[in-house]
């Protein structure tokens, strides 16, 4: 059972406005991941199909995406591919119940930041999101050499 007010030790709450998209066909996993991230202050959108996840990516901006692999057919590829097309800097974490080396290699080649086996420990999930969703690219100021 997930504690709805879960806060991993050593983590501060998220910066306001950080948005995470969760796409997972398993309702229990979707709920658990959502509760962990919402407990850290993230705004979370959830979808139970990869097609819904793709449509959501096309309609709204996100700071981080967590997508399930799906089956060995790697249905999560749809979300990962669309995220890369929309924004190469958008971090995508692929999670799976059964690690498949072919899917792992494909996900990493497509730009996933990592590929983890479920259940993902809450502190690890929060750590990935905090490290990557808070990344602000370096911007040169006008007139800088």
Provide a descriptive summary of the structure in words.
- This protein has one domain (19-133): Rossmann fold (3-Layer(aba) Sandwich).
- Helix content is 37%, strand content 17%.
- The protein has a five-stranded parallel β-sheet with strand order 2-1-3-4-5, with helices on both faces.
- The longest helix is centred in the first third of the chain and has 13 residues, at 27-39.
- The chain has helices at residues 27-39, 50-59, 77-86, 101-109, 122-133; strands spanning 19-23, 43-47, 64-68, 92-96, 114-117.
- With 145 residues, it is an alpha/beta fold.
- It is globular and about 35 Å long.
The portion of residues assigned to helices is: 25-40%
CATH topology: Rossmann fold
Radius of gyration: 15 Å
| Intertermini distance | 55 Å
Give the beta-strand count: 5
Instruction: Provide the CATH architecture.
Output: 3-Layer(aba) Sandwich
Rough outline: globular
Largest sheet features: 5 strands, parallel
Question: What would a concise description of this structure say?
Answer:
Strands 2-1-3-4-5 form a 5-stranded parallel sheet, sandwiched between helices. By secondary structure, it is an alpha/beta fold.
Give the key terms.
Rossmann fold; alpha/beta; five-stranded parallel sheet; 145 residues
Task: Lay out the secondary structure.
Blueprint: E1 19-23, H1 27-39, E2 43-47, H2 50-59, E3 64-68, H3 77-86, E4 92-96, H4 101-109, E5 114-117, H5 122-133
Parallel strand pairs: 1-2, 1-3, 3-4, 4-5
């Amino acid at each position: 059972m997930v504690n709805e007010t879960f806060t991993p030790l050593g983590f501060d709450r998220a910066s306001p406005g950080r948005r995470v998209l969760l796409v997972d066909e398993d309702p229990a996993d979707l709920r658990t991941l959502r509760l962990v991230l919402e407990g850290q202050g993230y705004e979370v959108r959830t979808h139970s199909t990869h097609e819904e996840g793709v449509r959501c990516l096309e309609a709204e901006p996100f700071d981080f995406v967590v997508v399930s692999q799906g089956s060995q057919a790697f249905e999560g590829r749809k979300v990962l591919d669309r995220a890369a097309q929309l924004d190469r800097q958008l971090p995508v974490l692929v999670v799976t119940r059964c690690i498949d080396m072919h899917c792992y290699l494909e996900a990493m080649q497509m730009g996933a930041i990592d590929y983890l086996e479920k259940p993902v420990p809450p502190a690890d999930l929060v750590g990935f999101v905090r490290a990557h969703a808070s990344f602000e690219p370096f911007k040169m100021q006008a007139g800088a050499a």
